[in-house]
């Protein structure tokens, strides 16, 4: 597996490729974060889809969930630690979930699994994506899983598989927040950028849902806590198992106050005391939740190389109803959790601010000369700017 990406190098690549004035910030963040699920159908996006497909490999030729040890033998038991807890330790990733959309498409209804024809289309698309990532594309696009899952969506509750609509208050928050460097600007100060742009955090959900790279997590256990370290933005959660109460309500944190317990072979983690600064989305530019959100996570090892992960989102301020996502985090050949050198090479904020100030100057010059107001180019950073627009270098 070719995994030699770093945030610093990625930023350099993207900035060198795309230097349109109004898109400087988007290019820099595209390097730091990738396009992020949510651009096409929400986190996970349903990428793959059979475009440029290839014959699936043997491991990809059947729905991966059907090959899990627990699926083949309901009496299968997860290994235990030396002190008797179920063993979740290891390096895991959500890469295998990249082609599973968050919400189901129309006409699927309550069906949780793809038909054989639909699965073949997804698997062949994933195989083609993997081939191109390894052999043809840049270092920004070389992290793909080796399995294909047959889930119709990550959302499993409500039974429709569709994320509930936002409340009026949630929509109002979404309309004025989280512009980020993939947004349309203007960019006037630090508050116009997400915590992801600024290399601070992606939040719990953002750190778990799959994006273009950096989807690894390392789980370590002791008798008294479980420790989860995420690859991108390198957050680490130390989650007590000793039954202590949550923090007092006055104290909030980006990753909240997490407390865990074992329910049979399943680790149950409840998180409260969150801020309203992170998002329910994988790319940092998703929908801001409120500080009343509560997360309940379930980790169940169902195979030597698979952990089923479920998370319930309850946020009465942002959403009209709770919802539950299901993913499978898996082990990959030769996968390592790499250092994420985000601050060291992050030009997202600086480039976006300097680009907007350059754009402001050009607008004023155009007004003074009676010329048409220049256009803002907010096209995708993964390609050339809009045809006909002037491209200048911003330093």
SSE string, helices as H and strands as E: HHHEHEHHEEEEEEEEEEHH
Give the strand order of the largest sheet, numbering strands 1, 2, ... along the chain. 2-12-11-10-7-6
Q: How many beta-strand elements?
A: 12
The portion of residues forming beta strands comes to 15-25%
| Percent helix range | 10-25%
Q: Enumerate how many helices there are, as a single number.
A: 8
Largest sheet: 6 strands, antiparallel
> Which structural class do the helices and strands define?
alpha+beta
The best one-word shape is globular
Q: What's the gyration radius in Å?
A: 22 Å
Return the average pLDDT rounded to an integer: 83
Task: Tell me the domain tally.
Answer: 1
Stretches with pLDDT under 50, minimum 5 residues: 1-50
Descriptors for this entry?
disordered N terminus, 22% helix, 395 residues, 8 helices, 6-stranded antiparallel sheet, globular, 4-stranded antiparallel sheet, 12 strands, alpha+beta, single chain
Please provide a written account of the structure.
This protein has 8 helices and 12 strands. The protein has one domain (7-344). Helices cover 22% and strands 17% of the residues. Strands 2-12-11-10-7-6 form a 6-stranded antiparallel β-sheet. The chain has a 4-stranded antiparallel β-sheet with strand order 1-3-4-5, with no helix packed on it. Strands 8-9 form a two-stranded antiparallel sheet. The two termini are 36 Å apart. The protein has 395 residues and is an alpha+beta fold. The chain has helices at residues 7-17, 24-33, 69-72, 116-135, 168-176, 203-208, 342-345, 348-369, and strands at residues 90-93, 155-157, 216-221, 225-230, 236-240, 257-263, 266-272, 279-280, 287-288, 294-303, 306-314, 323-330.
């Amino acid at each position: 597996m070719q995994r030699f990406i770093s945030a610093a190098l990625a930023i350099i690549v993207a900035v060198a490729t795309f230097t349109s004035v109004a898109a400087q910030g988007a290019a820099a963040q595209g390097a730091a974060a990738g396009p992020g699920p949510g651009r096409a159908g929400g986190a996970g996006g349903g990428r793959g889809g059979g475009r440029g497909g290839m014959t699936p490999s043997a491991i990809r030729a059947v729905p991966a969930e059907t090959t899990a040890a627990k699926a083949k033998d309901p009496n299968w038991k997860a290994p235990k630690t030396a002190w008797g807890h179920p063993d979740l330790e290891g390096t895991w990733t959500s890469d295998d979930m990249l082609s599973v959309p968050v919400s189901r498409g129309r006409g699927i209804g309550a069906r949780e699994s793809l038909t054989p024809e639909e699965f073949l289309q997804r698997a062949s698309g994933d195989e083609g994506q993997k081939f191109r990532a390894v052999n043809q594309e840049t270092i920004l696009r070389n992290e793909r899983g080796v399995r294909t899952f047959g889930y119709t969506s990550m959302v499993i509750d409500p039974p429709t598989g569709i994320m509930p609509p936002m409340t009026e208050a949630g929509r109002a928050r979404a309309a004025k927040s989280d512009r980020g460097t993939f947004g349309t600007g203007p960019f006037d100060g630090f508050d116009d950028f997400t915590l992801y742009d600024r290399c601070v955090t992606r939040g719990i959900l953002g750190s778990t849902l799959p994006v273009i790279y950096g989807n690894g997590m390392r789980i370590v256990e002791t008798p008294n806590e479980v420790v989860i370290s995420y690859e991108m933005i390198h957050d680490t959660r130390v989650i007590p198992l000793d039954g202590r109460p949550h923090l007092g309500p006055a104290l909030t944190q980006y990753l909240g106050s997490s407390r865990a317990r074992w329910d049979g072979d399943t680790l149950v983690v409840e998180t409260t005391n969150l801020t309203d600064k992170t998002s329910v989305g994988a790319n940092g530019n998703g929908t801001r939740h409120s500080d009343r959100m509560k997360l309940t996570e379930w980790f169940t090892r169902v195979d030597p190389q698979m952990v089923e992960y479920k998370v319930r989102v309850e946020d009465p301020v942002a959403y009209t109803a709770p919802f539950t996502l299901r993913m499978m985090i898996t082990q990959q050949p030769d996968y390592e959790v790499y250092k994420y050198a985000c601050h060291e090479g992050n030009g997202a904020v600086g480039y976006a601010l300097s680009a907007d100030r350059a754009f402001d100057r050009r607008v004023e010059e155009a007004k003074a000369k009676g010329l048409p107001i220049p256009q803002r180019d907010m096209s995708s950073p993964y390609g050339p700017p809009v045809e006909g627009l002037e491209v200048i270098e911003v330093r």
